Write a sequence for this structure.
């Protein structure tokens, strides 16, 4: 026999034991987004390569070395989306969603980047992204940040810090870029190979280097925040005042830049120490130039994306068992004997009619009481519902608690099972 197939490196299966945590995360994000009035947009996984080179920028990590680019059968160059902002902007322009109106949108799904796979860094990973268009002021920046802060609270995530910076206008950034190049050129010997290359291509990205040997030379670098244009400075001051008024705590990080070219003014990241090196769970900022760059009318935009693998990993450190037990069945139905097999299915269907919230797993495949009870214990169910020859003869059903402190086994008339389960399981229906 040949070796079984394996998934592509850096592309993960999410197994049933993990998907409960994903579902809880996604459901909470959906609720919070709905509460703030954001609507979902569903976008293709594949776009024209040029969309990404034009929006993300030629000299970024993504475009230089991370894109999954291939030729379509007709020769077009296509790319598996490495992020969602470009596709979302493209869709809004294509469908006229920005015509004299604002938009609050979100999307979820896999993104693809050819990276070195490691903990928290994969080649297929998942993001939920949020974008707001047509609003130039700092209030929408503050709303997006407040939304993320609420999300962490709802998820029970505590050990995260908000880092904030401003990249200024593109004119201010160009002037700053010259200062930065002068500074780094003078200390060129202290830079690593990657940063020396960036000195000519994308010097701001040197600030984002993860090489700890560069700490000294980075610490003394001129800060963009000291060179903001007046408009960006006012925007930043107002954003800070809004966050202060809302009680949202942040740290100013003058070295915070984003890997993508299209940002201006506000940039922010939520960072945790609990995940090791890949500690950024959410990153975003303002990109007022992007829509024009893609051929649309000048339209302000601001947004963020969160990395779901990292969030799931973080949730697992806070409460590993919560989501899994929430997905366990309430009831495991044991059926022993031919008549019980038949009647058991009908009983299960009736209970599902009566209690839509009930999670009932029916034993299939036969076997005696002992084998079926073993499965019931294994399932993590709260109760075993038992139908055997005795119960068939008496017209009753036995209900056996499978966990400590849930009392003794009882028998119930069939028509009372639903009422009883509703009460002991605290179901609403
Ligand atoms: P980094 O500097 O760590 O590569 P980035 O700037 O490329 O991050 P963004 O493009 O801002 O990341 O993506 C937003 C979020 O998506 C990140 O903060 C992270 O949580 C997640 N993310 C990005 N790339 C990956 C990846 N390869 N695997 C898992 N999650 C990722
Ligand atoms: Mg990256």
């Amino acid at each position: 026999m040949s070796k079984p197939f394996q998934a592509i490196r850096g592309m993960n299966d999410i197994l049933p034991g993990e998907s409960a945590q994903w579902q809880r995360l996604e459901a909470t994000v959906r609720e919070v987004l709905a509460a703030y009035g954001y609507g979902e947009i569903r976008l293709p996984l594949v776009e024209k390569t040029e969309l990404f080179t034009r929006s993300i920028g030629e000299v970024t990590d993504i475009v230089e070395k991370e894109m999954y680019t291939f030729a379509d059968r007709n020769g077009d160059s296509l790319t598996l989306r490495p992020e969602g902002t470009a596709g979302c902007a493209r869709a809004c322009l294509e469908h006229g969603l920005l015509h004299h109106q604002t938009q609050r949108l979100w999307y979820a799904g896999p993104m693809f980047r050819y990276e070195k796979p490691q903990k928290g860094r994969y080649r297929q990973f998942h993001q939920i992204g949020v974008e707001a268009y047509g609003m130039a002021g700092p209030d929408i920046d503050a709303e997006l940040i407040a939304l993320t802060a609420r999300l962490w609270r709802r998820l029970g995530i505590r050990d995260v810090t908000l880092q904030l910076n401003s990249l200024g206008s593109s004119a201010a950034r160009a002037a700053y870029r010259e200062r930065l190049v002068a500074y780094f050129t003078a200390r060129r010997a202290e830079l690593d190979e990657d940063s020396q290359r960036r000195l000519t291509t994308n010097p701001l990205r040197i600030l984002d280097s993860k090489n700890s040997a560069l700490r000294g030379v980075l610490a003394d670098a001129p800060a963009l925040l000291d060179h903001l244009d007046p408009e960006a400075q006012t925007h930043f001051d107002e954003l800070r005042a809004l966050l202060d008024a809302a009680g949202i705590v942040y740290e100013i990080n003058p070295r915070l830049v984003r890997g993508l070219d299209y940002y201006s003014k506000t940039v922010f990241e939520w960072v945790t120490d609990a995940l090791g090196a890949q500690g950024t769970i959410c990153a975003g900022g303002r990109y007022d130039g992007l829509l024009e760059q893609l051929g649309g009318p000048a339209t302000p935009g601001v947004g963020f994306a969160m990395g779901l693998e990292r969030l799931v990993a973080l949730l697992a450190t806070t409460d590993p068992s919560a989501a899994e037990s929430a997905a366990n069945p309430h009831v495991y139905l044991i059926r022993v004997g031919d008549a019980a097999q038949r009647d058991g299915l009908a009983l299960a269907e009736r209970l599902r009619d009566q209690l839509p919230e009930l999670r009932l797993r029916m034993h299939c495949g036969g076997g005696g009481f002992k084998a079926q009870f073993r499965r019931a214990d294994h399932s993590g169910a709260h109760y075993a519902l038992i139908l055997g020859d005795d119960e068939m003869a008496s017209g009753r059903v036995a209900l056996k608690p499978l966990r400590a402190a849930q009392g003794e086994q009882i028998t119930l008339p069939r028509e009372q099972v639903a009422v009883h389960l509703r009460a002991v399981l605290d179901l609403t229906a």
About this structure: The first strand starts at residue 39 and ends at 40.
